Amino acid sequence: MTVAAAFAVSGCSSSDPAASAPPLREPSQNAKAAAPASSTPVSSSALAGRLLAEADLGQDYTRKPEKAARHDDVTVIGCPALEELGGDAAAGGSLNFPNKAKASFVYSGSAGSEISEELYSDATPKLADGTARIFNAMTGCPVYQVVIGSKPIKIATQRLAAPAMGEQAWSQLMTFTTGGQDIVVKQTAVRTGSVLMVVSGAPALVDSHLEKALAKASTAH
């Protein structure tokens, strides 16, 4: 679930959950036929140049420094589909695609609120199949538990209406319960050609910056 579980571990705040909505949107046959001809992956360095920056977000945002990779043991309880994906995908690590870039920001106007963007790239058929499998697994279990190291986190997922963007799109609301605190994170993923964008964080911040993030992620420059 990309960086979402990391938000829960660090205890960021967010706004209230949205109402329930239709399931995830995957491409129709017409959309598949109209997909871009090029399926060339984009390098990690090129993806890094397509990430949102502080200048794109505004003066109230500060970029968080990248944390060193953690290698805690991860156990998923109550969701076999997620168990099959492995620890990283299930508990906040990077998705298993060869090219990737990530940036996280703190919004000072709402105490502790964060937004994070991740970009991934692979040959288009592999990216399309992989993202569908991952996000369908993530939303297939309404309630489950992840134990990271010795820290248990209860996770409740709620499918939201996917945005009418890109060739594939998914959106979900995740409520993390840890240490007696509920933390709500919205996560929206959009695939365009050989690039997958995942934006996670406080629901209002995700909604505010999704279109701008996709426009920059989809650029060829």
Structural features, described:
This protein is α+β, with helices and mostly antiparallel strands and 221 residues long. It is built from 8 helices and 9 strands. A 9-stranded antiparallel sheet has the order 1-3-4-9-8-7-6-5-2, with helices on both faces. Strand 6 (151-159) and strand 7 (168-178) form a beta hairpin. The radius of gyration is 16 Å and the shape is globular. The two termini are 28 Å apart.
Short synopsis of the structure:
The chain is built from eight helices and nine strands. With 221 residues, it is an alpha+beta fold.
Output the keywords.
32% strand; 8 helices; alpha+beta; 221 residues
Shape: globular
**Count of DSSP H/I helices:** 8
Backbone structural class? alpha+beta
Distance between the termini: 28 Å
Order of helices and strands: HHHHEEHHEEHEEEEEH
> Overall pLDDT, averaged?
79
Strand order of the largest sheet: 1-3-4-9-8-7-6-5-2
Q: Could you give the count of β-strands?
A: 9
Radius of gyration: 16 Å
Strand content: 25-35%
Poorly predicted ranges: 1-24, 27-37
> Largest sheet at a glance?
9 strands, antiparallel
